[in-house]
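A quick aside before the break. I want you to see a complete sequence-to-structure record at least once, exactly as it would be stored in a machine-readable document. Don't worry about memorizing anything.
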Amino acid sequence: MCLNFYMLYYLENAELTECKTHGHSCYKPMTDKGKTFVTHRKLRYFPITPRQKKLFMSLKTVEHMTWHQLHDVVNGVMVHLSDGKAWKHFNNVHPYFLVETKNVCLGLCTNRFNPFMSFVALNSCCS
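That is the input. The structure line, written in tokens, reads:
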């Protein structure tokens, strides 16, 4: 990944050694310790489906994975994201999703990466 998060060195860009936008090298400067190239940043990919399956297979975590459907709702008190207006709106628009208890909504957590370049502030969490 580019030093400033502008591009991924993947597929057609896999052979590049500099960012197309800023010209930064994708590798850290060489040291005397070794001759291997070390990248500035790495993007890690963790498939979500196998991880979710494991969460539902464990008796310890399955209760937490379905709690959003099973907890007692107190009017005017938000104790979980499922009590919020956005979640309720989603349930009204997509009622078929609410039927299955195992359906979960996922949030996107980023580490200062801004997927929407129009925003000025860098946030550590997006949803």
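Two observations worth writing down. The chain has a mean pLDDT of 77. The longest strand covers residues 108-109. We'll return to this after the break.
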